[in-house]
Amino acid sequence: MDLSDRHILIVGAGIIGATIAYHLARRGVKVTVIDQHHPASGATGSSFGWIHSTVSDDAPDVLLRRASVADWHRLEKEVPELWLHWAGALSYDSDSLAAQAHEKMLEQSVISQLEPAMNNPPPQAYYAKQDGAVDPIDATHALLDTACRLGAVLKTQTPVTGLVREGNAITGVDTLQGTFNADCVVLACGTGISPLLNAIGIPLPIKASPAILLRYSTPDHVINTLISGDDIEVRHARNGDILAAEDYPAVGGADEMASDALAAIAKRLKGTGSARLLSQSVGQRPVPEDKCPVMGFIGEVTGLYVAVMHPAVTCAATVGRWVSEELIDGKNREIPERYRPTRFCEK
Fold it and tell me: TM spans, by residue (predicted)?
């Protein structure tokens, strides 16, 4: 079948669905993206946007993370509307300090040069100069807009109620607006994947991990890199606001967390005493049960593909390339077997 004759339907207009749609449309494939709300309205909209490539060799997503920087640089050239900030990441949380060799650590004097607004800089920190940051909402819109200019179709406010199955093949999806047929259905809808698969008897356990994204106004630019410590995880947004990421607290709520985070920022960074909360949002990050990315055709049925992982924003540029190549060519050997969804079906 000629590429232009194939129709691939993507469920989910977050960062993963958007980058897959862009890569497919760029190759001339007919693409429809369906979302129950609007682009980046799920976990993507509450993502911190750290392109975080530094992980241990045995991390489940190590291959994706280490390929991500080059792919984001590529996308930056292909889609001029994308905005990425390549200032590196300064980490002094306990996990980062334990994972890096002593000779890779920066001493306090160098940390002060990188981040002069820091009060009482930590004795040591690790600086990943290759890391960057991206605005996940803007990036999702830029990728979808480009895909649509290349011929893709975006359907918002269109909840998917089920998969259409004919014998051993998935041939489309049912929605509240009717049935959409396709040669292949790609599930890129995060925590919404498991219910759709459960309905056709395919297990794929995905847990929801809540996280809070906080946005504060500040009159001054006080952060040069991206700072990740045991006390704060912050960076500047494109417009100068301070973004802070927090795991959802076991005790208390988002309001209390926003207040505590602001106090920690003011304590750590000079010039943030007058910062005030602008917004807070809670996102349900999709995390496969074994924490390993899931990418591939699924189950004994044909025409059904799944792409889900955390952190999605970090991995998105590479996921889009890998998945689009597999959907077009039938098999992408860059995708490790340990990422395949069949590992859940074989249990």
Answer: 6-25
The tokens for 62 are 């190590």
Asked whether 72 and 317 are in contact (CB, 8 A), the reply is yes
Structure tokens at 131: 């890391």
Residues with Cβ within 8 Å of residue 201, at least 6 apart in sequence: none
Which has the closest alpha carbon to 50: 260, 306, 223? 223
Helices (H), the chain: 15-26, 62-78, 94-99, 108-114, 136-149, 193-198, 254-268, 312-329, 342-345
pLDDT digits (tens, 9 = 90+) for 137-185: 999 999 999 999 999 999 999 999 999 999 999 999 999 999 999 999 9
Cβ distance 302 to 293 under 8 Å?
no
Give the whole-angstrom CA distance, residue 298 versus residue 14. 21
> Could you tell me the pTM of the whole model?
0.95
For residue 88, is it left (φ>0), alpha (ψ between -120 and 50) or beta?
left
Closest alpha carbon to 214 in 188, 248, 184, 165: 248
DSSP state, residue 46: G
